[in-house]
Amino acid sequence: MAAELVRGQNHPLTQTRLEIRVSAGHPVVAGATLADDRGTVHGIGRVAHPGAPALPGLEVPRQAAADHRLAVDLDAMPQDVHRVTVLLALPVGTGGPTRFGAVAAPFVAVTGLDGAEQASYTVTDLDSESAVVALELYRRQGAWKVRAIGQGYADGLAALLADQGLPDAPALAGTIHDAVAQGLARAVAPPPRTADESQVRAVATAGHASGALPPTPAAPAAAGPSGPIDYSHPRRQAPPPPPAAQPAEPGRPAAPVAGDATGWTMEERLYNQVWGMFEDLARTAAAYRSAVDFADSRMEQELDRILSGLSDPRSRIGSPGDAAREAARAKHGALVDRAREALDRDLAQLVAESEVVEPALPAPYAGWDNPCWHAYRSPMENPMAVRLGELRLPESDSTGLRIPMLVRLPLERGLWIDAGASSGDALTDADTLRARAAHTAVVHVARLLAAYPAGEFSVHVIDPAGSAAGALAPLVDAGVLAGPPARGAAGVSETLTRLTERVDLVQMAIRAGVADSLPPDLDTAEQLLVVHDFPHGFDDRAITRLRYLADEGPQVGVHLMLVADRTDAAEYGPLLDPLWRVLLRLTPVPDDHLADPWVGHAWTYEPPTVPHGSAILRQVLAEVARARQARGL
Fold it and tell me: What is the pLDDT of residues 470-484, one digit of tens each?
């Protein structure tokens, strides 16, 4: 029976191959240390963290996420290891919470590979701490137990590691946070939290694959004269419920409906629904993988027992041994088949939902092959999000299921369009990859220009050598750029100077509380700087300004899109590392480098593509130009 532990309580473990599941409600770093019987960790080689995730008998996630699964094989632990300590920490330098008291209490559960929970612990009473020892598995008289710890550290991960006996704890903490920062550059950021976040997936639609959350009740009505007064703001009520799903035949899931998530507008409901599908696919794939891992482990254990139980070596290769092995494999096949049936059922429902949702998406969310683009007109309001491609998992490849990758606007982080070789297409020559990257950047720019109302989004381009002239032609010919692409060192310097001065000016006005006194000729639109073939044409001074724009620009409406090959910047050494870490890497070819914020799957990212031979891109840009001219821009 599962035990709900309180701080200091322990519980015996009945299995040695385990999963430790962490649910924090907000991205956290998960790691573990291997210590001796006195609790001392002998060197960094006994610390599993995102930068070094695997140790004998232990594997931890490679990035910060809201949900984690740590794999533990206690039988594979070195003989001198007596304690396995699970630690959690908040990422630094991400703009997120800096103390556990500001987030939901982390929940940690120890389960078998079959998912059966053995013990759980909710880490409560945290305040200023930014790192915490959640629990430990410890060996006592040949048996393993779990103990709830809940020891927090206000001085962060370095103090926690120092308390474990590591002599160079600050350096190790820095290494861990650097690895997390690099992982964040490949993570798809979750949607921002809102007052009605628990309603993002409505339970009214019984056909969803998984991950549905109960709706938050609406604010109570104001009481009568003798009752309590409702002080809730009338404009902060819960949004209206989603439309009801179509009735289903008995025994069959409800037919999906476009916009069946909560939200004030159809755009918001569709946004929430797409994110719900993304989460559903992540979790159903995680359940399938966990079930297969359990089946593999069970068969391995049964085969080991068969070998050890047959004392006569001749019987191991005769009928008794063959029959026992065949029975173990049959059990394994049955478990995998059941897991696959559940996965196929969930995938079928998600495919049906996608077939309903995809045609209903508005232009900012729609693929370039959606007919809505042929009737495109410049919008009147700023969009909630924009589509930057599609995401898929190997488990869904046979169904063709793709989840739109929607990113909230305005952009919270810049984009890095990778012009170098990737795992998705390592054989393509360098020139072709650079051309694809430049074209992909233009497609992204066109999407952003089309998503915003005329005059609300300005695009500047730096192309030092003029090598992207062909790719940029649709933007230049349509006249939708803020000015001609800047070339040469002088063009780079002038553009960066102008945008950094704009950031400084707006920041000073906001801090002084006089934002309404900005110069009347200041362009108040969101600004996007596209830099092609970076870092060619950039000196140290220009790179410093670019890093400043990457760090400070998004808060005042200045965003970056770099088209670059990481290897070309190797000569700059660590100077560019902070820049790469704050940008979201996108590729011009399919590549499995992005991760979800829930379980950290490696998702294959597919860049947006315009149908071959279609003139829709130029048609949309022509409408953007027409709308700008109508406003005198």
Answer: 999 999 999 999 999
